[in-house]
């Protein structure tokens, strides 16, 4: 019978091998099930820590502390060096992210500061971009620690990560007119302040449904993806163009297109959906109240 013992450097590994001791060592679950359980637990712990961090900062940074931080972070350099303030904030964001080795921790830390008015959204924007650049140092350090035969490939991947974020900064920050994320963040924030459920819808749509749809189209082939993506892009560009003309040159448009009043209400406003969600929520609360009353009786 063939010997299955493994040797390494003249030593028999089977003599020194011990069974790993971990949380699921005696569990009959499959590796996939154990991995999903650990993934859910890790996400729960991560989200809990971030929520507690945000609440702690919100409770601490008030009063004189908030005023001092507001004065320091939102002060610009004197003219004509005012434009350097944003780039200094970008470097600060990159440096702090390099120290904590986590852009999630950094951005979660400045989020409550924005909410209580300590940091302005205009100053938080370069800090966040710098954080995206600083987080690339983690991959770079990991690549430099790779074995010699894998060093070139690992360094290439780390540099791709670095230059991708760098070009994103060059695309959306140097020219003030193209700092669209600031206006988009303000618009989404105002929408969420009016419709609280919009934040959940936005997360589900942009981080789950839309990526899943794009992935499914890519699996279907480039012809299917092109056939669907091209008309969608044409519609988006056309609507954006009409919106710009409505705001600045409405006389260039036909009378019917000078506003969107001819469309159904659900296509131009979230109020019908908000009314539906409100009715469903009230119905669920009434149902829960009836059940609790029945149990008490």
UniProtKB/TrEMBL annotation:
Record flagged with keyword Disulfide bond: yes
Compartments it resides in: Apical cell membrane
Regions crossing the membrane: 32-57, 77-100, 151-175, 195-218, 224-245
Claim: Glycoprotein is one of the keywords in the record: yes
Molecular functions per Gene Ontology: sodium:phosphate symporter activity
Membrane topology annotation: Multi-pass membrane protein
Main location: membrane
Domain of life: Eukaryota
InterPro entries reported for this sequence: Na/Pi_transpt
Alphabetical list of Pfam families matching this protein: Na_Pi_cotrans (PF02690)
Alphabetical UniProt keywords: Cell membrane, Disulfide bond, Glycoprotein, Ion transport, Membrane, Phosphoprotein, Sodium, Sodium transport, Symport, Transmembrane, Transmembrane helix, Transport
Protein name: Sodium-dependent phosphate transport protein 2A
Organism: Mastacembelus armatus (zig-zag eel)
């Amino acid at each position: 019978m063939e010997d299955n013992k493994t040797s390494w450097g003249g030593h028999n590994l089977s003599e020194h091998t011990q069974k790993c001791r971990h949380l699921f060592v005696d569990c009959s679950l499959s590796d996939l099930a154990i991995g999903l359980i650990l993934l859910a637990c890790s996400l729960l712990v991560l989200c809990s820590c971030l929520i507690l961090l945000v609440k702690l900062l919100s409770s601490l940074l008030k009063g004189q502390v908030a005023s001092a931080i507001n004065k320091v972070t939102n002060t610009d350099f004197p003219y004509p060096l005012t434009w350097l303030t944003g780039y200094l904030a970008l470097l600060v964001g990159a440096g702090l992210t390099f120290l904590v080795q986590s852009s999630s921790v950094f951005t979660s830390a400045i989020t409550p500061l924005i909410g209580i008015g300590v940091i302005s959204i205009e100053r938080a924007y370069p800090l966040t971009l710098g954080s995206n650049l600083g987080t690339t140092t983690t991959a770079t350090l990991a690549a430099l620690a790779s074995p010699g035969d894998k060093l070139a490939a690992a360094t290439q991947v780390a540099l791709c990560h670095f230059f991708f974020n760098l070009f994103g900064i060059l695309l959306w920050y140097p020219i003030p007119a193209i700092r669209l994320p600031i206006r988009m963040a303000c618009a989404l924030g105002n929408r969420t302040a009016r419709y609280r459920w919009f934040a959940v819808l936005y997360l589900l749509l942009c981080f789950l449904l839309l990526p899943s749809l794009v992935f499914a189209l890519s699996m279907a082939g480039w012809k299917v993806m092109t056939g669907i993506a091209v008309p969608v892009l044409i519609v988006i560009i056309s609507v954006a163009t009409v919106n710009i003309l409505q705001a600045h040159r409405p006389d260039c448009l036909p009378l019917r297109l000078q506003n969107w009043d001819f469309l159904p209400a659900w296509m131009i406003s979230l109020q019908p959906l908000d009314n539906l969600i409100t009715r469903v929520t009230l119905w669920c609360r009434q149902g829960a109240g009836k059940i609790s009353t029945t149990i008490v009786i």
